[in-house]
Amino acid sequence: MEKLQIKLEKWVNGGYCLAHHDGHAVFIEGGLPGELVDITLTKQGKKEWFGVVTSVLEPSKFRIPSDCPVYLECGGCSYRHLPYEEELKLKTNLLESMFPKWKGKTDVIFGPMEGYRNNVQWQVVGNEIGFFEKNTHQIVSKTSTLCKNVDKRLLVEDSKTFLTQNTKHQKNHTNHNQKFGRSISLRLSKEKIVQYDLEETEIEVLGTQLKVPAKGFFQINQFLLETWLKKMKSLLPESSKVLELFCGCGTIGIALREKITSLYGIESHDNSIQYAIENAKRNGTNSYQYVTKDLYKGYLPKELKQYAIWIVNPPRSGLSKGIIDSTTKLKPKIMIYSSCNPSTLQRDLRLLEAVGYRMDSMSLFDFFPRTNHYEVLVRLKRG
Fold first, then answer.
1. 73 is in an annotated binding site
2. Can 340 be counted among the known catalytic residues?
3. Does the model's pTM come out above 0.90?
4. In this structure, which topology does domain 90-113+221-382 adopt according to CATH?
5. pLDDT less than 50: residues of the chain
6. Where does the record place the catalytic residues (predicted)?
7. Which of 76, 62, 155 is CA-nearest to residue 370?
8. Homologous superfamily, domain 3-63
9. Percent of the chain with pLDDT over 90
10. Region(s) of the chain under CATH 2.40.50.140
11. 246 assigned binding-site residue
């Protein structure tokens, strides 16, 4: 692989520093703006190259020693060579560069930067357990014992004991590949640790008892979940009639039930909808309806016009054209939108602004400290 000496220019999205060489934009991991570094190129396209820092010749004043011996090798983190307070500034600046009108006005919410993950997917190859090295199917040694992002209860102290305890139910596990091994997915449940792709999870949040189906989505940051829900609650008017899109097992709407008089939830996975129905009953919420529908196909029914408030929590791909177009017919007054992908959020907000919506609240929730990811919560009002 080719090696270069290069001067780093600025941060860009994805955890990269940008530099230029011989007419190519070079996206580099493990550096800081202003540094002179040696890099190894990992990918060379026609216009864009990618590389990783191998040595630092002129360090930035912000550089700190990484607290992880396999940082950059496993590819899970982007900022372990940067103080956390600087990481928060960086993420805020990158977000506000996408939404210039909000420069200096974004709420930034964060919690502990270690042990925040309530779930993990360990890769298993033979008797090795851990995370794959970036762009390979090779286990990075000791990641399963030392990852600082994962709750300590989910780490692996003894691989032999761990495999004995966690493979006895996996004879028919579909996530198995003879060449690349298999994975074991763990999540903190109310009273135990479960394999969340095989078993349901029990969660208690804001006085709400929830069950999440096997393979069901749930937010991973155990420290910010309540804060995130409380912020949404503060953005809701009293006595709201809510349409909740991508509702999963009903977490948001049920947790915010004190301010919701009626709710219609839509999710594409029928199993999640069945759990949402049961979770609503379990928490004494009888005015909620839940249905299964593929939200990436077609438009929303005109009968949903009675719901003036929308809560949307889509996957990284964001909202569909059908959902955006449906706002022109259903005309919700308020939309509360939680996004794990600022790029698709920016795209969707541009389209929603074109049909009469304006953002009046934006919060950055650092759900994923030390990585390049974060959650953005916004409120839009019509007119």
1. no
2. yes
3. yes
4. Rossmann fold (3.40.50)
5. 172-174, 177-178
6. 340 (nucleophile), 340
7. 76
8. Nucleic acid-binding proteins (2.40.50.140)
9. 90
10. 3-63
11. yes
